[in-house]
Amino acid sequence: MRIAVLFGGRSGEHEVSRKSAASIIANLGDAYAVTEVLIGRDGQWHVDQVPVTFAKALDVLGAQDVVFPALHGPYGEDGTVQAMLEWLGVPYVGNGVLASAAGMDKAVTKTLLAADGLRVAGGVTLRAGEHLTGDDQERLGLPVFVKPARAGSSLGVSRVADWWQLPEALTAAWMFDEKVVIEPAVIGREVDVAVLEYPDGRVVAGPPLEILVSGAGFFDYDAKYAGGARFQIPADLHPTTTEVLQDRAIRAFNALGCRGLIRVDFFLPDDARDGSPGGEPVVNEVNTFPGFTSASQYPQIWQRAGIDYPELLDILIAGAVRDKRGISVAPGSARR
C-alpha cells in the first residue's frame, strides 16, 4: 500500500508534528511503501527530503493509496489540509473537514457539545481589541485560563490568578490566534479518553488516562513535552465513573461528526475525586489529531487496552480506505 505521511507545517506545533510523524513512519513496517511529505516552517514542501513545488507535492499526494496527515494545529489539524485531500480524491486518515475545523476551535467545540447536552466549562470569547467587562469578570471569578481558541499543545495558555495579569495573558494568547477564550478554572482531576473507530464502523473508547502534573500549575507545554507530568492508565476511578467518561467521549465524537479518532480531555469535579460515582464530567477540549509519538497519551491508552502501535496504525489506515472507497479492508491486510 502506497502511503504518504504528511507532517511539519507552519504552526507552532511543527516540531511536535515531526516527532509524531517519526513515530508513525518507524511503526508502519516494510509492507507499506512510505513517502515522506514535509511542509517546512516557511511553507516550502519537501518529498523524501527534496524540495518540490506545491504542484509536484499535489501530484505525489494524489498518487497515493492513502495519506496520513500527522499535522497538529493551524494549517493542518483545522480542516485546511483535509479540504485539499478531499479535492485530490485521495483517502486520508482521521477526521474530515468539518470535524477538524470545529474541533480546532475551542469556542465552536463548546457550542456544539453543549447543544448535544454535554457539560462544558463556561467562558468568554474575545477577539483582538476587545476587552473583558466587569460583569464578565464577576461571572467568571478567579482564577481563569486564557487560551488561543485555535491552537494546541497549550501554546499561549496562561493561568490568571489576579485581574492585573490579564493583559499580559491576552497578549501571549493573541500571538497564536486573534480569537481567545477565557475560561473559569475547573477544580478536579484531569482525565483523557481516547476514541477509536474500527473499519467496520464500531466506535470504542479506551481506558481513561489521568494526568498527574508535578511542578507546573497545569498541564502546559513544558509539562507535556519536557517530562513534567506522568500518566496513570487506567485512572483510579469507580467503574461507573469510567463508564460515564467513555460514554461522554463517544458522544463528543458523534456530536462533532468525527471519523477515525479523537481524544477528549475532561475535568472530573471535586465530588468525583474519591473515585465514587457522581459529578458530571466537564469536557475541557478535544483533539481531532492528538499527539502520536509512542509516549503520547493516545497511543499509550490503546497500548494499555491491548492494541500496540503498529496495529493501531493498521486500524486507522484501513478505516480511511473504507471511508473513501466504500470497501472493507481488514486491519493489517497490507502487512500480509
From TrEMBL:
Positions bound to Mg(2+) 1: 265, 285
SUPFAM superfamilies for this protein: Glutathione synthetase ATP-binding domain-like (SSF56059), PreATP-grasp domain (SSF52440)
GO biological process, one term: cell wall organization
Residue positions binding ATP: 106, 145-147, 153-154, 183-190, 284-285
EC number in record: 6.3.2.4
GO terms assigned for molecular function: ATP binding; D-alanine-D-alanine ligase activity; metal ion binding
Keywords: ATP-binding, Cell shape, Cell wall biogenesis/degradation, Cytoplasm, Ligase, Magnesium, Manganese, Metal-binding, Nucleotide-binding, Peptidoglycan synthesis
Enzyme class: ligase
Catalytic reactions on record: 2 D-alanine + ATP = D-alanyl-D-alanine + ADP + phosphate + H(+)
Positions with a binding annotation for Mg(2+) 2: 285, 287
Location(s), subcellular: Cytoplasm
A matching Pfam family: Dala_Dala_lig_N
Entry annotation: catalytic residues: 13, 153, 296
GO cellular component terms, semicolon-separated: cytosol
Cofactor binding note: Binds 2 magnesium or manganese ions per subunit.
Pathway linked to the protein: Cell wall biogenesis; peptidoglycan biosynthesis
Requisite cofactors: Mn(2+); Mg(2+)
Matching InterPro entries: ATP-grasp, ATP_grasp_subdomain_1, D-Ala_lig_Van_CS, D_ala_D_ala, Dala_Dala_lig_C, Dala_Dala_lig_N, PreATP-grasp_dom_sf
Domain of life from the UniProt record: Bacteria
Domain ATP-grasp: from-to ranges: 110-318
Primary location group: cytoplasm
Role, per record: Cell wall formation.
Stated family: Belongs to the D-alanine--D-alanine ligase family.
Database matches in PANTHER family: D-ALANINE--D-ALANINE LIGASE, D-ALANINE--D-ALANINE LIGASE A
Protein's name in the database: D-alanine--D-alanine ligase
Species per Swiss-Prot/TrEMBL record: Asanoa ishikariensis
Lineage per the UniProt record: Bacteria, Bacillati, Actinomycetota, Actinomycetes, Micromonosporales
Gene for this chain: ddl
